[in-house]
From TrEMBL:
Name of the protein in its database record: HNH endonuclease
Annotated organism of origin: Vreelandella halophila
Origin superkingdom: Bacteria
Length: 109
């Protein structure tokens, strides 16, 4: 890989032009030291596999799936967008203005 992807001008999930984008590690950093992930991915891939998302999308990613599920099954942008709850949320959020912040949801149980 050629390093981290450059910061885009809009959220890679909802497509809104938001000034404060956050880096979402597609393989959560907490999992980088686990043997399963060290064997399956190079060190560079673990560090560089990220996407740029707005805060509401980032919060929703972590609301709908655990870090383990994200690292094992949803570690690409395409597989993230295949999560039905996330796809529905990003479609809904895409029509909102850039400064819009949804009401907080309860934590996943």
């Amino acid at each position: 890989m050629n390093g981290k992807p450059p910061r885009p001008s809009q959220c890679e999930l909802c497509g809104r032009a938001v000034a404060d984008l956050t880096q979402h590690h597609l393989i959560p950093r907490r999992l980088h030291r686990r043997k399963r992930f060290r064997k399956g991915f190079s060190r560079e891939e673990l560090e560089e596999r990220i996407c740029w998302v707005c805060r509401p999308c980032h919060n929703m990613i972590h609301h709908v799936r655990s870090e383990q599920q994200l690292g094992l099954h949803h570690n690409t942008l395409e597989t993230l967008l295949a999560i039905p709850e996330l796809a529905e949320f990003t479609r809904w959020l895409s029509s909102k203005p850039p400064g819009f912040v949804p009401k907080k949801r309860h934590r996943r149980r």
